[in-house]
Specification:
single chain, elongated, mainly alpha
């Protein structure tokens, strides 16, 4: 969003990118995240658990909790799949859409040096986005297709995806 505004409307940046607008965007995203997470938690709390109560995961994931239930969990799995796809593909789609707009705007810049500077700025951010999304999407697909049965491998993939991009932020920028 920031790069879209900065590249497509640089002279209007300060009037578009206001503190109030940022507050509304942040509040909207936090509300969406809470709504996305509250339903699976409520449904998981209603399940009967009759076996072990030890969850084989250190992340906040619903799948390992659902597996402990002693009833049909197909609805819960469908809800978790829909939630995960929304949480992963929604922001990724928005990011890709904004970058398509940015690329179209940058190709219209006459100066090659300005064009390269804009592409360089966007490329570093896009690299970090891909470093985050690719391992998470890969872990989700492999886990959902049951191609990864090893919980430690699944945990390692998720750990790398949430720790590597923040560590690379200062280096890349």
């Amino acid at each position: 969003y920031d790069r879209l505004i900065a590249i497509c409307w640089p002279l209007r940046y300060s009037t578009i990118h206001t503190n109030l607008r940022m507050l509304l965007i942040i509040a909207g995203i936090w509300s969406l995240v809470v709504l996305l997470e509250i339903f699976p938690v409520i449904f998981a709390a209603r399940l009967p658990y009759c076996s072990s109560r030890e969850v084989q995961s250190y992340c906040c994931e619903h799948g390992p909790v659902y597996k402990l239930a002693c009833t049909d969990i197909s609805y819960n799995r469908q809800l978790a799949t829909a939630k995960t796809l929304t949480a992963l593909l929604g922001p990724l789609t928005f990011i890709i859409f904004t970058y398509v707009i940015v690329v179209v705007a940058v190709t219209r810049i006459a100066s090659i040096s300005q064009r390269w500077k804009a592409f360089h700025t966007c490329l570093t951010h896009l690299l970090l986005v891909l470093l985050y999304y690719m391992p998470v999407i890969l872990a989700y697909i492999l886990g959902n297709l049951r191609l990864v049965q090893n919980v430690d491998l699944f945990t390692a993939i998720l750990t790398v995806s949430v720790t590597l991009p923040p560590m690379l932020n200062p280096i890349i920028y």
